[in-house]
Write a structure and sequence with these properties.
single chain, alpha+beta, seven-stranded antiparallel β-sheet, binds flavin-adenine dinucleotide
Length: 472
């Protein structure tokens, strides 16, 4: 390995002083993952400003066999953007590359640099009277490059799909330092392997994404939000099916929230009012949106609610009546993660299942966990409409959280992930593998799948310099 001092000098000369992070606190922040499970020790943290600077960095990295850790907003939840503790890896943070390069409202596309913050991309689309639909609680700080690299989901997947479904073109610096200019804005392009999809969800292991061309959609002009109280997850599935029959493409979000989640949110955010006079076991948060008029939307809503009452599954309904009320209904969902953090550590699972099997999965797995770990609390919520759940297990009240986690995390993961697999699901719905699930995935993917993934990695990154130790 080259002398670290010399390497620092060489890399610094490629980006200039503004492109190197020197502040120790900032470095610590950028080399610690969001959940504070991993703390890295980098050779350097670089912030290039252009695609050619990224290309020069990667070329030098290839020559000197220096590992590159691509990074966006560092909001990822699997340690994918955190360097190791060797002091030999460079973090390439893309947040200075934050230009909206073009918006074509006839082609319904926009081309943006990888370091653009998701919320800024949404606003830029709105200013052009279009919708960029990806929406998640970290949208104020996560970046488009990170969204593409983790194939992010969020609350509108039900209608618009995951990030993979809205990426049309990509510009990426390959592990050799060569730039692939693939920023096409085409819906149809059957000219062989669709290479852009290799980089979507690759978690920075195949190259550094520097820009993307995204799909845009008409901006809804009316919307309605409601919270429906239910008895069971099975009733939520019945309601989802009904809503899909009546609303088709108008159904934008369908979130499941258990009573435990609502209690937790109200405990740590007392300003959020109870949506109903009494508590119910489950709730479905539903959003409908369209370009139709408010009257038509109102009629659609009435039909849905009367059908739900007819089926005797809706115990109570709160329809958002004002902007503030709608915001409060959404806060019940959006604040769950923060309430969990305030409450203390728990064992987290980001899983997906065939939608039709979710109720059975919850029943069987809840009972297995309760039997093995009496007193634990299930914090179960998620994007029911697209089959993904946050299925978290909190230690019993009064237990020493750290001791409980240290003694039981692996076993609880095993119970939940084995159950997910029995029900035909996936152990990572949205967050990826990063370093957190790198070993765990070996139990659940076939050797054929793992070998194909390794073959792709070796073909694109034979020197193994691109985000080593993540995913594979
Ligand atoms: C409060 C909160 C809520 C969240 N909700 C959701 C949710 O609903 N749905 C969801 O899917 N995720 C969610 N996440 C996870 C996270 O926000 C997403 O994974 C997001 O897409 C990460 O973007 P980022 O820019 O922060 O990426 P980072 O954390 O910086 O990086 C994530 C991964 O992508 C790679 N990467 C980043 N930029 C590039 C690039 N330009 N080129 C190549 N590789 C790159 C990194 O190496 C790393 O492996 C949530 C996170 C938080 C904190």
């Amino acid at each position: 390995m080259d002398d670290p001092l010399r390497l620092r000098e060489w890399f610094t000369s490629l980006v200039g002083p503004r492109g190197v992070v020197k502040d120790k606190l900032q470095i610590l922040d950028l080399t610690t993952d969001r959940r504070k499970r991993y703390v890295g020790q980098p050779l350097l943290v670089l912030k290039p400003a252009t695609t050619s600077e990224v290309a020069e960095i990667v070329k030098l990295a290839a020559q000197t066999r220096t590992a590159v850790v691509p990074q966006g907003g560092n909001t990822g939840l699997c340690g994918g953007a955190t360097p190791d503790a060797s002091g030999a890896q460079i973090v390439v943070n893309l947040t200075r590359m934050n230009q909206i390069r073009a918006i074509d409202s006839v082609n319904n596309t926009m081309t943006v640099e990888a370091g653009c913050v998701l919320a800024d991309v949404q606003h830029a689309a709105a200013e052009a009277d279009r919708l960029f639909p990806l929406s998640l609680a970290a949208e104020g700080s996560c970046t488009i490059g990170g969204n593409v690299s983790t194939n992010a989901g969020g609350v509108r997947v039900l209608r618009y799909g995951m990030m993979r479904d809205v990426v049309l073109g990509i510009e990426v610096v390959l592990p050799s330092g060569e730039i692939w200019h693939g920023l096409r804005g085409l819906r149809k392009d059957n000219t062989g392997y669709d290479l852009k999809h290799l980089f979507v969800g690759a978690e920075g292991t195949l190259g550094v994404i520097t820009a993307v061309t995204l799909k845009l959609f008409p901006r809804p002009t009316t919307s309605a939000t409601m919270l429906i109280a239910l008895d069971t997850p099975g009733d939520a599935l019945q309601l989802l099916s009904l809503a899909q029959s009546y609303l088709s493409g108008r159904l934008t979000a369908f979130e499941l929230i258990s009573a435990t989640c609502l209690t937790l949110v109200r405990k740590y955010f007392p300003s959020i009012q109870a949506p109903f006079p009494i508590s119910y076991p489950q709730y479905a948060l539903i959003e409908i949106s369209d370009t139709c008029g408010a009257d038509e939307m109102g009629k659609t809503l009435e039909v849905l609610l009367s059908e739900a009452h007819g089926l005797d599954i809706a115990r109570d309904v709160a329809v958002g009546t004002s902007r503030k009320h709608i915001q409060q209904l959404w806060q019940v969902r959006e604040y769950i993660s923060e309430a969990e953090t305030a409450d203390g550590k728990n064992v987290k699972h980001d899983i997906s299942l065939p939608i039709s099997r979710i109720a059975d999965f919850i029943e069987v797995t809840d009972s297995e966990i309760a039997h093995t770990y009496p007193g634990t609390r299930m914090i179960c919520f998620g994007h029911l409409g697209d089959g993904s759940l946050h299925y978290n297990v909190a230690p019993p009240q009064g237990a020493d959280r750290d001791a409980f986690m240290a003694a039981n995390l692996v076993r609880i993961n095993r119970i939940v992930h084995d159950s997910v697999t029995r029900f035909g699901g996936s152990i990572s719905a949205e967050h990826g593998l990063g370093q957190a699930k790198r070993e765990e995935i070996l139990r659940y993917k076939t050797s054929t799948e793992m070998n194909l993934m390794r073959a792709v990695k070796n073909a694109l990154d034979p020197l193994g310099i691109m985000n080593p130790g993540k995913v594979l």
